[in-house]
Design brief:
Layout lengths: L1 E5 L2 E3 L5 E8 L8 E6 L6 E6 L6 E3 L7 E6 L4 E6 L8 E7 L2 E2 L3 E5 L2
Parallel strand pairs: 2-11
Antiparallel strand pairs: 1-3, 3-8, 4-5, 4-9, 5-6, 7-8, 9-10, 9-11
């Protein structure tokens, strides 16, 4: 089982990024998936959840209306579209399946 995130980087406040998580080793389309983020020294925070087929999504309050979680089951890929980024969105972003974590991708929002 492997989860590989990409798409992070340095972006100015108000900018956008799209994170990608490519999954392998399990039946991706049969499972819900989650995005988390972690600021150095703090616990990981659940950012967004997507259910099987993408019909269910949920977000932490601080990102509602700005972030969109989606999935492409044909490509075993999870996405997180992040718009109107703020400095407080800075952190390491991880995708998660059950107890399995990816290696993370760093997002830095700074002018």
């Amino acid at each position: 089982v492997q989860l590989v995130e990409s798409g992070g980087g340095l972006v100015q406040p108000g900018g956008s990024l799209r994170l990608t998580c490519v999954a392998s080793g399990f039946a991706f389309s049969n499972h819900g998936m989650r995005w988390y983020r972690q600021v150095s020294g703090e616990e990981r925070e659940l950012v967004a959840t997507i259910g099987v087929g993408g019909t269910y999504t949920s977000y932490t309050n601080s990102v509602k209306g700005r972030f969109t979680i989606s999935r492409d089951d044909a490509r075993n890929t999870l996405y997180l579209q992040m718009n109107s980024l703020k400095s407080e969105d800075t952190g390491m972003y991880y995708c998660k399946w059950l107890g399995v974590w990816g290696q993370g991708t760093q997002v830095t929002v700074s002018s």
